[in-house]
Each structure stands twice: as C-alpha cells, then as structure tokens.
C-alpha cells in the first residue's frame, strides 16, 4: 500500500488531495488521527484497489495523521499513514524596510511577523547570524527586534529578517536597509603660520569637514577695515 500526496506542507486555503493505492482489491476506508472519515464529499472510490481523499480548502484543523486502511478480499488487513502539516504565513505585513539612525545613538529595528502554528525569527547580516546574547553590541532581542547599541558608521548596510514555520523549512525573508547619519564636524587648519600685514600677503586656511551623508560646504568671508 502507498499514499500519494502532492506535498505534505499545505498552506491554509489550498486543496488537499491524497490518493491511496492498496495494491489489491478490497474495501478502503480513511481515518484522521485514528478516527474514521465518513464525509462522502471528501472520500471517493476510484476503483476496487484505490481511493481518493480531497479537502477543497485546508484549515489549521486539517493538520494531523491520515491513515488509509484496506480490508482485502483475500481476508487480510493493511494500513498506511501520512502526516500532513498545515501552515499560514509567515507574513511581515507592511512594516518599514528602511531605517536611519544618528551615529552614537541606539538603533532599534523591529521584525513583526505573523504565522501559524509557530514562527521562529532570525536576523542575519551578510549570511552571518546575529546573536541574541546579552552584552553583544548588535543583537536580537526576545521580541525579535534588532538592537544596535551606540550605532557606528560600519553598521550601515543591508540586514535580513528570516521567519520560519517552526520545525519546517517554510520561510520568508525581509531585507532591511540601515543608514547611519553623522553630524558635520568642522576643523580649521592654517596653511601659513606667519604673514606680514599688507595687501600683497595671503592667509590660507584649510577647512576640514567630516559627516554622513557628505556635508555641503560654503565659504563666507567678511573683511573689517
């Protein structure tokens, strides 16, 4: 005997079709979690050695162990089982995927995800898992928020929130961009230390400006006579 299923992981709302082939003539019945399925809309015989179980729109309640039992005309009985997993999601909804933080502040990037039966969340950067250990400057909190303590310029870049249906390989990924801004810092440096008074002499000052994004620089000179 064998049960043919297109897949064992079925999303809510999808159709479930199970085909049981007994390999010999007999009476075939179906069970879910050891209880008989008597619904004629779900169970239909194909011939003396095969039967089909179909559910038009799967719900979470349809998850479980399905069994095909056959009382063969020869007098012996046989049974075969298959486990079906029903899931919903994971879904990130319409949350932000772009976050800006000021250098030196604490950055918090939420990852809000829904799904059934349970969802596990992992943060990654460059295919590297971000830890959840206390004391890590960049870590995943218990509510799945990404915390970046005292944001640095090198923290800018692309992060990824991955959500998995617990115990299965079903997953969704959400890319998140982090931008770091730094306020402008200005330093002046004299190029010429000593000059003689007079219209023929020049004084050079070098203006060094640092910041993210790159600041615009303008020069305003005033002369006192």
Automatic annotation (TrEMBL):
GO terms for biological process: cell-cell adhesion. SMART domains: IG, IGc2. Keywords: Disulfide bond, Repeat. Residues 1-68, 90-171 form the Ig-like domain. It comes from the Eukaryota. Gene3D superfamilies: Immunoglobulins. InterPro entries: Ig-like_dom (IPR007110), Ig-like_dom_sf (IPR036179), Ig-like_fold (IPR013783), Ig_I-set (IPR013098), Ig_sub (IPR003599), Ig_sub2 (IPR003598). It holds the Pfam family I-set. One of its GO terms (cellular component) is membrane. This is Neural cell adhesion molecule 1-like. It comes from Seriola dumerili (Greater amberjack).
